[in-house]
Write the structure tokens for this entry.
Amino acid sequence: MDTGGISQQFPSNLSAFGFDMKYPIHFASSPGRMDVMGGIADYSGSRVIQMPIESHTSVYIQRKWKTKKVGKGVFAITSISESGQHKKRFVKIPTCTFFVNKPEAALHKYENLNRIFSRMKNWCAYIVGPILICAKENNIQLSTRDNFVIYITSSIPEGKGVSSSAAVEIASSLAFLSLFGHSPSAKKVRKYAPLYSFFAENAIAGVPCGIMDQLACFHGKVKHLTPFTCSLPSVMGKQIGYSKKYLRLWGIDSTVRHFNGGSNYARVRAAAFMGRHIIMKESLLSRTFETLCSMNRVYNSGK
């Protein structure tokens, strides 16, 4: 992961997307990840091993001048895919959309933000959602007069199960924190970026997920495997360096789109967590296979 900061070298086309080269431009970059071991049980506190992939997402952000009139600021967001899935996405959202009705008041509560984003293009929530959470949780004062320009470029393929959403969440969080003075050296605040991103995906984008992807994208290190537990707080293991001479991993595209949203996914996640809770509470780990089968018959009979 490139922790970012103030960008000294800009893509040559930034000015075409609304950036003013007279103002500082902050950026951060995050890789996608490949699930090496254990990722299927990330939502139940499993210990996993993850590996960053070469594809990554970069986010550039600039806070431009404030408008003279209250309520006239905007988020102008441009997203370009280097993987060829989409050429260009653009959206302009009035900053006042995220504030309560009173001018210059506080940001909406999280449940209200979720309803607001549900009426928008869904990809926006993965970018603006983490930014709003960073602002709320760190008492960063935003205004309806603020103008933000955001440019995202990504080589991570979407819907392939390699954490394209987590990568843009992490990069958006870190670029925004840098913009408001939390530079790469400010580890006390920036270490919470995975948590902000995880919460944004669940509470604002409305997609049930574990925290594995966000932790993998945040801690990913080139040519290293990253072991950790998918718990809150997470327990990070020592990263394991490797040489491509001795270890190579390939991901095979099944062509089936990976999608965490929808009621079916939420029900499966809830059922799996309930099952884990029952196993731990009833001490079923020490039971024999025959005992478990007899318990299943008892439960199904309604006793």
User: Anything to note?
Assistant: DSSP finds eight helices and eight strands in the chain. Residues 198 and 211 are 6 Å apart (CA to CA). The longest strand covers residues 47-63. The two ends are 53 Å apart (CA to CA).
